[in-house]
Amino acid sequence: MTGGFNPERLARISRVEDWHFWFYGRRLLVSRWLNKLVCPTDGKVLDAGCGTGLLLQQLRARGFRAIGLDLLPEALRQAWARNGDISLVRGVVENLPFRDSTLCLIIMLDVLEHADDRLALREAWRVLVPGGWLLVSVPAMSWLWSARDIQAGHRRRYSRHSLLERLSRAGFRPVEACYYQFFLFPLVVLARVMGRFKPEIQDLEERPGRLVNILLRLATAAEIALGRWIRWPWGSTIFVLARRSHDPTF
Length: 250
Prior knowledge:
The chain is of the alpha/beta class.
């Protein structure tokens, strides 16, 4: 992750990401989008902000030459424990420790909101091969800003327009963009609004009961399946798949 992400937040994620409905749905969505990519079998793939290494595990299972990057030593240790012999690098997305045009895919899941996104996207453009892929996800809707954003070390939330504009100015051509968590969006709004008066309510998002979590996983899986044909008009997260195309304009 980047400087706005701390070990305490990493520990909280590590306790839930294997089973929590939100991470489950994110894995489904990433898997679907990876199917769209044309990437050389020997091409290098970077998980920028790799956290505990769960996505690296997913990438390796697909045969990608995956590399994990994170600022936190605790994250790199967890990624190594999960994946064993894998390439891991300590660093930040604003200054990627790779040569120009050496990666075929960069994945930044919930990373840009912690960083100087202008520098991060410029660095991604630099290290990607021409036509290389960039997959990003960010929190949506600035009016959803809450204590959870502060606790997570976020600098901002995005609109679909603002994210696509940043990508275009950084030299990327968006191929597909979608909102995530459309079905559960009313619950997110309710939790964030009520959480301003009762902070403990926001913690329920991270600790749903077993039955509730199963039901929310089913709703999330249905949303992603239907998302192949339906463009959801809103959600709590934005995903974009883009390609390096033109020279940056900033």
